[in-house]
Each structure stands twice: as structure tokens, then as C-alpha cells.
Design a protein that fits this description.
The protein is α/β, with parallel strands linked by helices. It is built from 13 helices and 15 strands. It has 2 domains: 297 residues, Zn peptidases (Aminopeptidase); 114 residues, 2-Layer Sandwich (Alpha-Beta Plaits), CATH 3.30.70.360. Strands 1, 2, 3, 4, 5, 6, 13, 14 and 15 form a 9-stranded mixed sheet that branches. The longest helix has 21 residues. The protein binds glyoxylic acid (GLV) and manganese (II) ion (2 copies). Glyoxylic acid binds next to loops.
């Protein structure tokens, strides 16, 4: 393959930074940090802004039934399969300014750069702002990329939030077409490859002093909800050995979740992200409690074993306390390796730019995991300061963003020529 002429490509990191900061002003002002959760008013407003930015970058835009904002930069050959890139602009509650946003603004900047340098790809370049990547109140993540990949199912639409409202009804109220969303999968033949720029969200790159991460694999995610049912009793008169305390059973379960995570071989993690109790009072033994936990790893066999061990241990421990437990297990996604050809292309692009790169796994979930159903998938990581993410402190230096978008643009050219 001839080396692409990278000298002609110079993405404008300051312009991309300005876009990131401007988008970060469209958030829920009542919450600390940056909150632009899927289906919220700020998210709705921000989507108009993103659509306008894509149009301003010379992309032909459309919004599909699942709410993905799609921008197309036509290539020279209308029959060639497309090169797809993008990420998401929704955030977790009180999150940061970079998770997902970097991949969308980086893709827009790469599209501008290609046009300004007079570079015309053979393939169409498709930029996607995928709807709702973060796990939502219905327990569904990556709504838009699942729809494009053909793995959004009617069962997802029926999932209900705590108020008993279904995700399908919520999508419809947001102006989307949920029923069309479950049958709008792209034809894999239309996709040449998928590449996503993202912040690492962990500490590996910064710790090792690397500028670029070449993602090897995206962790699988198993979720577990355990509802404990005990017995309410007087907290002053009920002897310690005669209680069925649902909150203590939940506390013990949380430690079980942690213990199994600590025993993981490599890159396995477990988290209990939320706990809720019934009414709750100083002086009443709790009769109900619920925990929401996650198990993640790039190793499928550890993941399956860890899920089983956690569920069995929680049930055994609760029974010893006379507490009932109903455990709901949910597979969010299996581990997904990045295509070796994509890892090689990203590494070659980074190397040709003289950047330090390292092969790293992703513990975070990404739209890329679903886009891998359609064609070879790869990801480019840039460092996160202190490894922080999903919090207001999330930060990536502009110099790292510059390197990231340079690698993205160079990778797009290499993929086009491959
Ligand atoms: C998304 O950021 C996830 O990994 O949950
Ligand atoms: Mn993300
Ligand atoms: Mn995230």
C-alpha cells in the first residue's frame, strides 16, 4: 500500500476543542458536572446543535428511526462500501465533557480536514452520533448502535423504568419510531469498516506515558439485580439472631460482588453501582433492599464463571439470614475483539505520525462493540487525566486530542486505500 500523504492533513485541534466546549454548554444546569442524558431536554436541544455542526462541516445529514444523527461525505465511488466513524453525545448523570463527545467532534473535524485538504476518499465517509450510548433508566445502553447493527430487539422496547414507562413509549415521545428502529439494520455489505475515537476513561495510557491506545478488545458486560425480602421488626427489641434483615443481606452481597472482582485474572472488574431500601428508618429492621451490580471482562469464560459464583454466593448467604432473594441476570454484551486488521491500521497510522502507542483493552462499553456486527471494528484511545471518567473531573489535554484526531484522519485514509 502506498503511504497516504499525511502532510496534506492537518486537523484543527483548537476548532475541535471549541466544538467540545460549546456542546458542553448544553446541559442540565441544575446538576453538577455535565448532564445530558438520553431522552432529556438538554439532550434534545444539543442534537439540533450537533446536526447543525455536521451540516456546517459539509456532511449530508439525516436522522434515522432510532434517533441516530448521520452525516455523509460522499466518496468517489458510489458503489463502494462506506467507512463509518462516530460515537455518542449523551452523558451519564453528572458526567464529563469528553466521553463520546470526542469521537463525534473528532469525526466532524476529520471530515472538515479531508475536504479542506482537497482529499476525496473512494468510499463514502459516514459520521454517526449514535443515540443514547450510556446505560439508561431502562437498563439499555447503545440504543442507536444496536439499532444500526440489527441487535435492538422488541424486548428492549418493552423494558420499563422505575415509573413503569416503557422504553418504546419514551422513544416515541422523543419523536422517534421505535418499531421501525428494531428493523432498520444496515446491510453489512454497505460497511467497509468502523473506527471510533474515544477517551480511554482509565489510567493505562497516562501511567505508561503513551499518547495513543490501539484497542484490542471491548469488555463484555453482565448485569445483576438482586431484590432482597426480609422481615420488618422493632430495632430495639428484636434480638440480633432473630432478624431477617434485608439490608444486611444486600451489604453482604455487595462484598461478594467486590471479592469476586478482586480475584479476576486480568482486566476483570465488578461494581455495585446502586442500592435502594424500602421505607427505611432508624428504628425498624429493613424488610426490603435491592442492589444493581455489574461484572466486566474481556475474558468470556471468567465473565460467565464470575456471574454464576456471585449469584450462587448471594443466594446462599441470604438464605442463612432467612432473607429471600430474587436475582435477575442480564447480559448487556459479550466481549468483542477489535479486528486485527484494524489494530494494525491504527498502529501504523500512529507510528507514521511518530506517536507513542500501546495496545490496550477497553473496560468501558462502546457503540463500536455493536458496530462490529457490520464489519471490521477498531478503536483509537487518547489518555484521560488521572484515568478519571463518568465524573465532572473527566479531562483530556488538547494535545492528546490533536494526536487522536490526526490518527483518526490518517486511519480513515489508510482504510480507504486498503
Ligand atoms: C459506558 O460508558 C459504559 O462503559 O458503561
Ligand atoms: Mn463513551
Ligand atoms: Mn460513558
Amino acid at each position: 500500500m502506498t503511504e497516504p500523504d499525511l502532510a496534506t492533513l492537518s486537523p484543527d485541534a483548537e476548532r475541535m476543542w471549541a466544538d467540545i466546549m460549546e456542546l458542553s454548554s448544553i446541559v442540565d444546569d441544575a446538576s453538577p458536572g455535565w448532564s445530558r442524558e438520553v431522552f432529556s431536554e438538554p439532550y434534545k436541544a444539543s442534537r439540533e446543535w450537533t446536526l447543525a455542526r455536521m451540516r456546517g462541516a459539509g456532511l449530508e445529514t439525516s436522522i434515522d428511526a432510532a434517533g441516530n444523527i448521520v452525516g455523509r461525505l460522499p466518496g468517489l465511488d458510489p458503489n463502494a462500501p462506506s467507512i463509518v466513524t462516530g460515537s455518542h453525545t449523551d452523558t451519564v448523570h453528572s458526567g464529563g465533557r469528553f466521553d463520546g463527545i470526542v469521537g463525534v467532534m473528532g469525526a466532524i473535524e476529520a471530515a472538515r480536514t479531508l475536504q479542506e485538504s482537497g482529499t476525496r476518499l473512494t468510499s463514502d465517509l459516514i459520521v454517526v452520533d449514535f443515540l443514547g450510548e450510556e446505560a439508561n433508566d431502562f437498563g439499555v445502553s447503545c440504543v442507536g448502535s444496536r439499532a444500526i447493527a440489527g441487535v435492538l430487539e422488541p424486548g428492549h422496547l418493552q423494558r420499563k423504568n422505575r415509573d413503569g414507562v416503557s422504553m418504546g413509549d419514551t422513544m416515541a415521545a422523543f419523536g422517534l419510531d421505535p418499531h421501525a428502529a428494531v428493523s432498520m439494520a444496515w446491510n453489512p455489505r454497505s460497511v467497509k469498516s468502523y473506527i471510533e475515537l474515544h477517551v480511554e476513561q482509565g489510567p493505562m495510557l497516562e501511567t505508561a506515558g503513551n499518547e495513543i491506545g490501539v484497542v484490542t478488545s471491548i469488555a463484555g458486560i453482565e448485569r445483576l439485580m438482586a431484590v432482597f425480602t426480609g422481615r420488618a421488626d422493632h430495632a430495639g427489641t428484636t434480638p440480633m439472631d432473630q432478624r431477617a434483615d434485608a439490608l444486611i443481606a444486600a451489604a453482604e452481597a455487595i462484598l461478594t460482588v467486590e471479592r469476586v472482582g478482586c480475584g479476576a485474572p486480568v482486566h476483570g472488574v465488578t461494581t455495585t453501582g446502586k442500592i435502594a431500601t424500602g421505607q427505611g428508618a432508624f428504628n425498624v429492621v429493613p424488610d426490603s433492599s435491592t442492589i444493581w451490580a455489574e461484572i466486566r471482562s474481556i475474558d468470556p469464560s471468567w465473565l460467565t464463571g464470575a456471574r454464576r459464583r456471585i449469584a450462587e454466593q448471594i443466594a446462599t448467604d441470604a438464605a442463612k439470614r432467612g432473607v429471600g432473594v430474587a436475582i435477575d441476570l442480564l447480559n448487556d454484551q459479550d466481549p468483542v475483539p477489535a479486528a486485527q486488521s484494524m489494530q494494525d491500521t491504527v498502529a501504523a497510522a500512529a507510528g507514521s505520525l511518530g506517536l507513542n502507542w500501546a495496545a490496550v483493552p477497553s473496560g468501558a462499553g462502546h457503540d463500536a462493540a455493536h458496530m462490529a456486527h457490520l464489519g471490521p471494528m477498531g478503536m483509537i484511545f487518547v489518555p484521560s487525566r488521572g484515568g478519571r471518567s463518568h465524573c465532572p473531573e473527566e479531562w483530556t489535554d488538547i494535545n492528546h486530542l490533536r494526536s487522536g484526531v490526526q490518527v483518526l484522519a490518517a486511519t480513515l485514509m489508510r482504510l480507504d486505500q486498503a
